[in-house]
Design goal:
The chain is an alpha+beta fold. It has two domains: 3-141, Alpha-Beta Complex (Adenine-n6-DNA-methyltransferase TaqI, Chain A, domain 2); 194-337, DNA methylase specificity domains (Adenine-n6-DNA-methyltransferase TaqI, Chain A, domain 2). The chain has ten helices and 18 strands. The chain has helices at residues 48-54, 103-111, 113-122, 133-137, 146-187, 228-233, 248-252, 299-316, 327-331, 340-380, and strands at 7-12, 25-28, 45-46, 65-68, 76-78, 86-87, 91-96, 194-197, 202-205, 218-219, 223-226, 238-239, 245-246, 264-268, 272-278, 283-284, 290-293, 334-337. A hairpin with a 3-residue loop joins strand 14 (264-268) and strand 15. Helix 5 packs antiparallel against helix 10. The longest helix has 42 residues, at 146-187.
Amino acid sequence: MKLLDACELIIDCPHSTAKDEGSGYPLIRTPNIGRGRLKLDGVHRVSFETYCARNERAVPQVDDLILAREAPVGNVAIIKEGQQVCLGQRTVLIRPNKNIVDPDFLVYYLLSPEMQHMLLSSANGATVSHLNMADIRKLEINLPDLTIQNKIGKLLSVIENKIGNNNEINDNLEQQAAAYFFHLFIENADPSWKNGTINDLGNVVGGSTPSKSKSEYYTNNGIAWITPKDLSVDKSKFVSHGADDITELGLKNSSASIMPAGTVLFSSRAPIGYIAIADGEVTTNQGFKSVVPNSNVGTAYVYYFLKNALPTIENMASGSTFKEISGSAMRTVPAIIPDDKSLQEFANFCEPLFQQQRTLEAENRSLATLRDSLLPKLMSGELDVSDIDL
C-alpha cells in the first residue's frame, strides 16, 4: 500500500521559519529531526498562537511522525508523551492510522536501509536536495501484521530510549562541569592570576591531509585521523577514530602529527568551533588547531576554556571565502592562567564526570550498532519476533 493509505494525515509544514520568540514551544526544523528522536537542544521557541497562525492544520500530537524534506533528507522522528512542539521549515507531519500501522514501527520502517534508499533516490533539486510531497504520499510500504509491528516497534524503541536516556545523563554531567568552570574561573576568578595566551595552556598543533591520490596512505584500521566532518557526524565528546584512518606511510608523507590522548581537538575552519577530546592517540587534517594541554593545566580546563573563548576565537578568524583561525592567531588567543591548585581542583571534579560520559558514549555506540544491525533483519522478516513477549 501507499504511505498515504496508512496515515490519517500527511501535511507539508511552513516553508519559512517563524522568528525565535525566546519562549514557548520548541520549533522543530530539519536539523532537529534525529534518527527516531527529536533533538530539542538549541532550538528556537515560538508561541502556540504564532504557530497556529502559520499552519493551523499541522498541530502535532503524540505519536505523530516528523519527516525531514531537506538535509538531513529522510530523517524521521516520533513525538513522544510530554513533547509539545511546533514544526518549522521543510518538515512533514505524518499521523499514522493506528488501526493499520504502529507509529514506532513506522519510524524504524522509514529509517530502514531499503526505505532510506527509496527516499534519497526520490530527492531532487539542483541547489538543495529535497523531497516532493507527492513522492512522500505515494511511497510504497509493505506492512506485516499489526501485532508483529507492535513487537518490532517496542523492541527497537527500548534500544533507542536507552540511547536517549544516556544522552540526557551526559548532558546533565556536561552542564555540571560547565557550571563549575564558570563558578571557579569566571565568577570567582582570582585577580592575582596572570594574563597569558593559549600558548601558556598547551601546545597548539595543526594537521595535514595525506595525498588522496595515494590509496596506500589510507586504511580502515591504522592511525586515527580526524576531520571536522567526523565531528559534525558524531557529536561524541570523546573521539578515538574518524571515518578514515591513515597508514604509517601516509603519516610519514604528510605534516600530520600524532597527538596524545587528552588532546583537545578544535576545528579551525568549516566551521570554527567543533570541540572534542582525543580518546587515544590521533592525528587530524588541516581543519584543526588542536591543543595538547600542559600537564599542570589538564584537559578539562582547556576543553571548557575553548568552549568559553569561542566568540573571541571567531572574531580573530579571517578569510574571504570562509573564516579560519590560523595557528599563529590561535596561539595568541588571550587566556587567564589560574594557579595550579585551582586547576587541579577542577581536574579532580571533572575526572569522574568525564569517565562516566566516556562510558555512556561507548555504550551508545554499541547500542547504535546493535540497532542498525537488527533493523534490516527485523524489517525483512529475517528475524522472527512472533514468539517474543514484550
